[in-house]
Design a protein that fits this description.
By secondary structure, this protein is an alpha/beta fold. It contains 12 helices and 16 strands. The chain is globular, with a radius of gyration of 21 Å.
């Protein structure tokens, strides 16, 4: 998970996320949300739910887009609301300022963890924003669009390695008692014994290494269950692969540089690639839910018309700002940058229409 004191995102932070780079990313997500809401024939009361909203930038851009172009879809202004799942006091303050214009009163850790819904405000486009510490606390009384952008990669992972003598062993972190230094070691654990029994993984060679995030699987299954119960869809955007990876990807970043994850504890951003194959398996375990994709971020954004949107912006800005528009487009869509590394997956009810952009996935 992210470091407790790590500077998250933005050009000064440990890494740059798509929403921090350009509002066009959030515009595309907002437009896709409207298309899906219309496709699924849902009423014009649009409820968003974001897990790991960061600074609130994506939610702001999505809300702005839906608030401005929503009337063209429904013939009237849609009624907007959002639930944000957040436990960081710093992020809560930034989200509240961005989405509601100011901070009424800073919430305390006690309030965050003792109240299911610890903050409620009215903000952009008259939307009702509610903050929760856990997904389970949010009522399932209406359809919702769940957004997870670079959220699952921050969840804990278990790592395993295949050995000649012991089969699969778990990679653990231990501490040198005399100098308090952390180091990696391996143990035979209950989890590694379970991996021994997986027929697909049995074919991997000695020396192969794999990662698994039970927390990511559980959250995605929970979201799929909520969609089956109340309707809506989920959009998951993250870096990772749709196959079993035999390399370990857990790593740490500080000031845009990759560093040792076992040093500067709490001051780095910790991350691991998302295993979309496992996520699809988690969704398949929920009766009535269906996973679509993943497709590449480049494919998703291009199908949603991002090229045309950037061309419009390019023609309207002064020459000194045109380079930044080209850079943003390349960063989001180029295979060497985020374009192919990042994937987009959608979850719906299996009885709902196939969402736009995912028809051939």
């Amino acid at each position: 998970s992210s470091g407790i004191n790590a500077e998250y995102g933005g050009h000064k932070g440990d890494f740059i996320t798509a929403p921090e780079l350009t509002p066009v990313f959030g515009e595309i997500i907002g437009a896709w949300s409207l298309l899906y809401w219309q496709q699924a024939k849902l009423p014009p009361n649009i409820h968003f739910m974001e897990l790991g909203p960061g600074k609130g930038t994506l939610m702001r851009d999505v809300m702005d887009t839906v608030g401005i172009i929503g009337p063209a879809f429904f013939g009237k202004a849609p009624k907007l609301s959002a639930s944000l799942i957040e436990i960081s006091e710093q992020f809560i303050a930034e989200q509240e300022r961005l989405l509601c214009g100011n901070i009424m009163k800073r919430v305390t850790p006690e309030q965050i963890f003792e109240n299911a819904n610890y903050l409620t405000r009215t903000g952009l486009h008259k939307a009702r924003f509610k903050w929760y510490s856990m997904l389970e606390h949010v009522p399932t009384d209406r359809p919702a669009l769940y957004l997870m952008n670079e959220f699952l990669d921050a969840l804990p992972v278990n790592q395993f390695q295949k050995t000649e003598e012991k089969g699969w062993v778990e990679v653990m972190v231990d501490v040198e008692r005399d100098c308090d230094k952390l180091f990696y070691t391996t143990y035979k654990t209950g989890r590694s014994i379970k991996i021994d029994q997986d027929k697909e993984l049995a074919e991997l060679p000695v020396g192969a290494q794999i990662e698994h995030s039970p927390a990511a699987d559980e959250i995605v299954a929970s979201v799929a269950q909520r969609i089956v119960q109340s309707g809506g869809a989920a959009l998951i955007i993250d870096y990772g692969e749709d196959q079993v990876s035999t390399e370990l990807t857990f790593r740490a970043f500080k000031d845009h540089q990759q560093v040792n994850p076992l040093e500067d504890l709490g001051l780095c951003d910790l991350t691991a690639d998302v295993n979309f194959k496992n996520l699809k398996r988690a969704v398949a375990g929920i009766e009535g839910a269906k996973a679509h994709g993943p497709i590449t971020q480049s494919n998703f954004l291009t199908l949603m018309g991002i090229g045309e949107r950037f061309r419009q912006l390019y023609s309207k800005v002064p020459p000194e700002k045109q380079d930044s528009i080209i850079h943003a487009h390349n960063f989001l869509c180029s295979p060497e940058e985020m374009g192919d590394r990042f994937k987009v997956m959608c979850i719906t009810r299996d009885s709902d229409p196939i969402p736009f952009c995912f028809e051939s996935s």
